[in-house]
Records
---
Amino acid sequence: MNKYQVGPETVRMLGLRHPWVIADKFTKEWSAPKVGDLALLCDENNKPLATALIDPNDRVVARVLGPPGIKLDAGWFRNRLQKAKRLREQAGLDETDAYRLVNAEGDGLPGLTIDCYAGYLMIQLYTPAWDNYLPTLLEVLQELFAPLGIYRKLRPQETRQLEAKSGNKQYSRLLSGQPAPTPLEVKENGLLFHTDLAEGLNTGLFPDQRRHRLDLMQRIKGKRFLNLFAFTGAFSVAAAAAGAKQVTSVDVSAKYLNIARDNFSLNRLNPKRHRFIVGDVFAELAKMQQAGERFDVILFDPPSFSTTKKSQFSTRGGTSQLASATLSLLEPGGLLIGSSNHQKVDMVSYVKELRRGAIEVGCELRTIYRSGQPEDFPVPVCFPEGNYLKYVISVKD
């Protein structure tokens, strides 16, 4: 195992148990580190500090696995995965078979996530440093969980590389076991949803919003609900199943809204009783404003950044624009629900964006609920960067 000296700032952060080593002038002096090397990090006095996984091509050049002396073998993986499994017993997964089994730094496997979808596992690597250890990981996953199949979901930059080489953009690879049916039916809070483990950048369902969909179901009965950036309609299905008077789902993708209709039917909800609007969110909001439409609950959960022919959206600045555009459609006493998964915007900054939007239209908002990831997305107290999800419910005065 190679030894690498780190600078005083990294020594301080390692003392605080932060799991990342960020590239700096000290890491640039490391002698020929290779992707996937297991290294011993030391201070200027050669005192061992931690064992880390190396990726010299990344801004995060080393990800801490634990104290000095770690061996990245089957026993180590088994210990980590057994702890992750026990933690999920606290996650409230009754009537749910779509959830996160391993949440990277939160489960001591930095840069690696594993999601479960109805007995299938989906691995995603945020650094190629894990590639050499995949065979051992797969072996232990088979031993502990006996999944029907194990997929690897490729990240966008990986799919671009594949496309350049072969002309095909393959988003997932089946690593072991049998292929999942297309679509694959999964259960969340007793509701059913179609997912696709083989095609697309996403599977069609984001498990990190599971608790929030359950919360929405407790607030929505008899109300008119507007779901913006609806994607495949998981929030819309939850609202309709809980007795919403009418659900309006808006997304720029006709493909996603067709899946949303299928999800309604899957849960014996008649999609014809609700509205599905394909279009740019801001353009559709303007039409609704002109038509004098009103809603009791409005939710927006946009991607961190997106571009359509008519507009460009980013969380920074875009959130205040969304708030101001939706508040005029919201009844007094109605609920405005904003959510974002943008890692670089913290909760305080996000609420400031909502405040800015409210001030722009001369409206008063009172926040009644703030939340983040559910229990199957644990975050170490020493790793604030892991608290990426913001979910805020406010009441319009």
---
Amino acid sequence: MAEGDDLRQQRVAKLESLRAVGIDPYPRRYERTHMAAEAVGQFEQLTGQEVRVAGRIVGMRILGKATFAHLADASGRIQIYARQDVLGEDKYGLFKMLDLGDFIGATGTMFRTKTGEVTVEVRDYEFLAKSLLPLPEKWHGLVDVEKRYRQRYLDLIANPSTRRVFEIRSGVIDAMRRFLRERGFVEVETPILQPIYGGAAARPFETYHQALDRTLFLRIATELYLKRLIVGGFEKVFEIGKNFRNEGISIKHNPEFTVMESYEAYADYNDVMAMVEQMIPYIAREVLGTEEITFQGNTINLSPPWRRITVSGAILEATGIDLREYPTQRALYEKMADLHMKVGPELTRAKLIDHILSTYIEPELIHPTFVMDFPVEVSPLAKRKPDEPDLVERFEGYIGGMELANAFSELNDPIDQRERFVKQLEDRAAGDDEAHVMDEDFIIALEHGMPPTGGLGIGVDRLVMILADQYSIREVILFPQLRTKV
């Protein structure tokens, strides 16, 4: 028998012993008066008063007829002290049957031990939940990365730093909402199941709706529905929600991820840029108390103004390639091949440009930077620059070598939009399965008129990575997608 099985059997035997004497090891509720940190912090005011605390036993020291234990709740830990002469022989005997991981509630008065630790002297206690499996590695921490992701609850129990990451995540989303609401944005919800997926270049997940007898797709973006709301008369809208893309997994990518998208009527990408370089420092101040952060050994100041560079300028500086000299897919591919860049001839010109950006430019953008003015074939939903019609008014925001934000002056010309969709269909027919599909209903919406609009998408997971100084996206997603365990 494995050691784990033997320990479980021992705990099951204790469980049965409790039930045999009429104790319910899993009662419905427990009314406590104070959280652990609150009781410790208010020790002077609470001295002599009865308190009721509850939590998981994370440490225990039995000294014959007296036992010290530590209870942990969401706020922290507090020590409790149980004595046989206070509880009585029978109840103290049951107290000694407690194991690490069990939940109990304790009633008593507080005092300081000789070492100065605030402690509750237990006058009574209740079993709240019996743990049948031991805590990871005897509470010394959980370091197995695979196990941390698959059994996140153990990671949260064993590693306080993990819980802190997700407290930061919660704070980031809350601060983002406050920032947008203070600017007059209305939070909305759009469909996750969509008959036509769109708003990004990605492969979707498919599902089947029995009652409607049709194939539906998990959304890859919220964009096209949010812009329908601008058509309908909303002028400032945003949504924070999950997107789903049937693509690879890496330290920067998870198939299920959280995005904030916002749309503002009568604004362009310059207005959105100004908003982003105000929003990110605001969130950092609200969550961390500072605009200067550390990410993977780099000290980064988030304060505006952020650096601004163009796609063509950045590519020319990094690789020597002047995109204007290579206006076709074939010409650009041959130039990249001459430079020994590892790309295939089947890639579209948009994909070739994206490869240059992600390989040679993105990793160097550690400090806040806006990369602006993308080629039109890279951005089928963005408005052309009036003085350079081969480019669009689009920017991507980078911090820590990662794309964090993507924004456009939104295309609101329905005729131009249809032509772009047709070109995307041609790319799809040529083998690009991430090219945009035709969305006739969206075209019809645009034909009813959409005002000039600035749109924005921010990767919430990546923003948390940056603010919590985490190298992998899996560290900031509570339950990341993993391969089937063999």
---
Amino acid sequence: MFQNINFTTPSIIFGMDTLNQVGKQAKKLGASRVLLLTGPNVQKAGYVEKVAALLKAESIEVEVNIQGRNTPEPATHIPEAVAEVAKNMKADVIIGMGGGSVLDVAKMASALLTNPLKVRDYFGREKVPNRGIPTIMIPTTSGTGAEVTKHAIFLDEETQVKKAVASSALLPNVAIIDPLLTVSCPQVVTANAGIDALIHAVEPFVSKNANPVTDCIALKAISLMTKWLGPAFADGDDLDARYNMALGSVMAGLVLNNSGTSIVHALAYPIGGEYHVPHGPSLTCIILPCFDYIMLARQEKFALMAEAMGERIEGLTTREAAELSLIALEDLLKKLNLPTTLTHLNITDRSRVDQWAIDAHAEQRLLSRAVRKLSVDDIKIIYNNSF
């Protein structure tokens, strides 16, 4: 079979102390006034002052916008408010520095400067017609991969469901990934962000949209992160672990951007929106029954996944090797203190399953990539198996 492959990526600058390049990169984009979007923890770590100094050294004016919120995903009004700030200061470049949510807000705020509607009007695939002003993304976690993707996730305040804007117009111009910025991550953030990154590699790997390029990158990302996530979690000062997790995370982001997630993310959105569960745990509490339900369609790939995770598959049947991937994944989740069931999150109300299934089934942008066609009743089974 001959497959057409499109592979898109921002300009990527990766390595220790690469944060020092932010001023020159902003200057290349024509920056004279920059809106620097970040969060309070990043500010406390001293990174904001450093970036501001690097920008000012290039004669670039800087306004800092500190983001705070009370839900794991930013609500739709937040990027709209940031866009107003950028418009009023006449920003010509937006820099997002922080976790995935801060980067998503930065991407969307940029797009809103050149597109007239509200965030809700752009939910879905390729609905943003015009690119925004240039953006630079600097992740401080490993991570969501948001620095290299065209996606931005927000809480739809009307439905209390997480939804995505997925448009090429949101793709950042430059991603600067400096593993040293992740050393300050608390243990729980290391686990939540790290497992999110791992899922961004494994889920597209077993999706319909996988291709030979993303498969190679995904397997390497899986290998890196299953080896180094544990050490990064155990000792945040382990620079080898931080370096390799940052590398695995950005590779997973490239896989996500070019092959996309599917069943796990589709089923996680209703739960995360309703219960305001952080993104990583909203995925881990359902991933095992999700993968068990689709494994019959991609046993060979699940077997390769097990091998990439460091499991010995010699002498095993394809089915045995495939099932080993779920055993290894469950073991990793437990060692990271992450939930493997809904009950672990104190979610026990099964009366909500019917509505979750309807909401998840509506996420056809994601479910269209699933290797098994799923009805609403199929999704109900998966949710019930998640308790």
